[in-house]
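Posting for a labmate who doesn't have an account.
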Amino acid sequence: MPVFRIGDRQFDYSLRRSATAKRANITVTPGSFELLVPEQATDEQIEAVLHRRRAWILETVSAMQERAKSQARVYRFATGAKLPYRGRMTKITVEPFDGSLVEVSFRNGFVIRTPRDLSEEAADAVIESSLRLWLRRRMRDDAKEFVHRHGASNGLKPKGIQIKDQKHMWGACGQDRQIHLNWHLIFAPRPVLEYAVVHELCHLRYRNHAPEFWSLVGSILPDWEARKSWLDDNEHLLGWEKWEPA
């Protein structure tokens, strides 16, 4: 991964070339950023973009790192711990039982049944893995529901839906008409996830963010701006960070 230096600080970034991109675009995360450029961009043009945007990159990455400190921190996946889910902090209850596999369900909070013979350390890792799998499945179910609700009636029919662990984007619509969605959207309120799904559906017709694109989004979700604003303002809250006690 290339490194971009600003003063005494350095940032990892990924470079992605696109045949459909008209101009350079930078997407920032707390630890790195992605630079999207037109396919024919030269090294000199890429360096010029980075140099021109260096102050913005430094300011934005620093701000996101500060905001990321408010992300949910989990020391142990045990009764009483809380995780974000559909826009709310949600409690975990762990119940030992005589089965052989971890079971996850939701009843006013996450209820996780674990085999009695699992050690505390082993149970922690298995619970986290099982929760991730359960949440990704709920994410897929929600996304399919929204595609069913808004797709065919608006002439927007994707080839399929893929749930991804994307670092730099919430969603994407491939040339193959596959919609890709970041699984961390399951931590946002359902109306925000609905906006993300509709956003990618509309890219099936418009491959850019021209006024016609936003007009189509607005015809499906008149309050899309409020939903997008929530995502822009709270993206740093969508997930958890596993911490070891000092």
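Reply:
Got it, the structure tokens are right above this. The mean pLDDT is 87.
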